[in-house]
Design goal:
single chain; about 325 residues; alpha/beta; TIM Barrel; two-stranded antiparallel sheet; about 40% helix; Aldo-Keto_reductase; Aldo/keto reductase
Length: about 325
């Protein structure tokens, strides 16, 4: 699951989680990404309760984009109330197929390239969920099965049912948990990684300030890494990284993205740029050349054990199969 460029575009922030966004600028950003050779586009049917898929569908139509020239990844299963509240997961086979029917309609396409449960449904064996995806692959509605935020055992169980093309999981200088058990398994089984959160929700962008106000609808208002002393400690790490980045002639964001991309050809960073300006900066990461010494200095600037706060709040962390 790769792009012409070694970067994918995540669309979540264009419709949800990070406060208001401008649809026109979002569509322009998608078009700019495609023009630059980014062909892997990631969305979820619960981002903005379907608005994100509608946005992507409009971007493809208005840009006259050849459907076969892009790879669309869709996550499903998260359940939300009318107020946007998170109320559980549903990855039963019937729900899998129903969700895809709505996704195809919103996107205005006849197939999804990678279809994956957003999280492991604790009430449904993963074999049943990916078995339903396998049936959709056989019917031509899906090209490949994927997974998201699951652990090594779940990956093996899923792969025993049907080929798994890709695992989407958070991976950054500040979140390296997959390295111990998960990455060895995906490499053994030939499963690619699309790494989201490569800038740790903006902490590693180099643009975040300690006094920045965060709106109530912004995910970061509840994120442990953005709170009080945790934020101060994390921003201190970013300043150390800034010195390393400047020595490379790059920005903080660029070296953070380039570091993830350099961890293996099977790993594609997913950037969540919501504007053309941020997209242009992120794409500059593809020009950053990192030798072994530079990679070591970048990793040493942000030691994983010194990052303050979990990547999600306590309730969300408990729901992550990848953290068990």
């Amino acid at each position: 699951m790769t792009s012409t460029t070694p970067i994918a575009l995540g669309l979540m922030g264009m419709s949800d989680m990070y406060g208001p966004a401008d649809d026109a600028e979002s569509i322009a950003t998608i078009h700019a990404a495609l023009d630059a050779g980014v062909t892997f586009l990631d969305t979820g049917d619960f981002y903005g309760m379907g608005r994100n898929e509608l946005l992507l569908g409009e971007a493809l139509r208005s840009g006259g984009i050849d459907r076969d020239a892009v790879t669309i990844s869709v996550k499903f299963g998260a359940q939300r109330g009318p107020d946007g509240a998170w109320i559980g997961y549903d990855a039963r086979p019937a729900a899998v197929k129903t969700a895809l029917a709505y996704t195809l309609n919103r996107l205005g396409t006849d197939h999804v390239d990678v279809y994956r449960p957003a999280r492991l449904d604790p009430a449904v064996p993963i074999e049943e969920t990916v078995g339903a995806i396998a049936e959709l692959v056989a019917a031509g509605y899906v090209r490949s099965a994927g997974l998201s935020e699951v652990g090594a055992d779940t990956i093996r169980r899923a792969a025993a049912v049907t080929p798994i093309a890709d695992l989407q999981i958070e991976y950054s200088l500040m979140s390296r948990g997959l390295e111990t058990e998960i990455l060895p398994v995906t490499r053994e089984l030939g499963i690619d990684i699309t790494a989201y959160g490569v800038l740790s929700r903006g902490l590693l962008s180099g643009h975040w300030r300690a006094d920045r106000e965060v709106g109530a609808t912004d995910f970061r208002a509840r994120s442990p890494r953005f709170r009080g002393e945790n934020l101060e400690r994390n921003l201190a790490l970013v300043e150390t990284l800034r010195g390393v980045a400047e020595a490379q002639g790059a920005t903080v964001a660029q070296v953070a993205i380039a570091w993830v991309a350099a961890q293996g050809r099977d790993i594609v960073p997913v950037i969540g740029a919501r504007t053309r300006e941020r997209l242009a900066e992120a794409l500059g990461a593809t020009e950053v050349q990192l030798d072994a010494d530079a990679l070591e200095r970048i990793a040493a600037a942000v030691p994983a054990e010194e990052v303050a706060g979990d990547r999600y709040d306590e309730h969300s962390m408990a729901a992550l199969d990848s953290e068990r």
